[in-house]
Amino acid sequence: MNRSYLLVICLLFASFTGCIEDAEDEVETAPEEEIIRDWDFFPIGEGVTPSTNPSKLLAEGHHDLVANLSNHVAIGIVNLGNRSVDFNASFDQDHPMHFLDYSYDFDVTENSSKVEFDLVPDGIRILILEINSTSDFNSAVISANMNWDGGSSSKSISLYFNYVAKGERVEIGDTTYSYYSGFLERNGKLFDTNIEDVWDNYGYFWKETADANPHTATLPADNVGCNGTGDPSEDCDGSRQMILGFDQGMVGMYVNQTIYVVIPPEDAYGKTGSNALAGETLIFSIRIVSVEKKEIPMSEIRAIVTTDNETDSKVNGNEQVTFTFSATDSVSDSTITK
């Protein structure tokens, strides 16, 4: 019998004859992919050295703060599973700190003590906490949850705070030395740092960074806040050396202070271009460890003094002059004699 006629007969009488059962048995269905739900929740190091042992970094979760200044610390959440998942993190609303609301794709609520967001597989979210407190705020517990239809998972980490002295303020024209780490905002991958602890323990590297040689020397930056010689201050004798967003973040900081800055592409490596970081929004941690003030040449020093006859007199920097005044008076109120 012709094979086409046989097929028609089978289709018409399949429910009675079962003549296509063998064909159905040959169809194989692909096994469903195993659902993996896993994640990590961790503090991010800052390269802080305790005064008791300068050769070692502070233990994980420990941070140096400067009392009564804005200080930033950061924590990370990474989705290690193979499904997009919702997350949230929170802390006691009585703590003198809050989450920075720096991204359009997460929600900060409950007086900035809670943040909610979703993460794709292998995605990392860096959460920045701003702390402004007196020295009696020494620790905080941050709780986090991963939520999915029909289930959830919870973790928590403890942060500990040590208070250090406020150092010199960074002003326009200064040279700074700092520790830093740089992350991609969109996925939290590390692309650069000079902090040994971060090199060793962060673990989530941008593809261009994976083979980089770790470097741990402090970062020097001349002419902070300067657009060029004399712009915007006479203290500028050249242009800034850092990208604009990093440079602007340092102006006004103090030695021992740590902040995180979120830098859009136009203030980083540009919206387009040949640089591998072009078009990327970046997150930098910055910790100032020392500042060099601009030296003023003697030829530029000027002073106004009150002479014996009470007339104002200019003293040029190339003159050798001895001033005497009472230590109990301010200079502006003292009678200074030449």
Automatic annotation (TrEMBL):
<feature type="domain" description="PPIase FKBP-type">
    <location>
        <begin position="173"/>
        <end position="292"/>
    </location>
</feature>
<dbReference type="InterPro" id="IPR046357">
    <property type="entry name" value="PPIase_dom_sf"/>
</dbReference>
<protein>
    <recommendedName>
        <fullName>PPIase FKBP-type domain-containing protein</fullName>
    </recommendedName>
</protein>
<dbReference type="InterPro" id="IPR001179">
    <property type="entry name" value="PPIase_FKBP_dom"/>
</dbReference>
<dbReference type="Pfam" id="PF00254">
    <property type="entry name" value="FKBP_C"/>
</dbReference>
<dbReference type="GO" id="GO:0003755">
    <property type="term" value="F:peptidyl-prolyl cis-trans isomerase activity"/>
</dbReference>
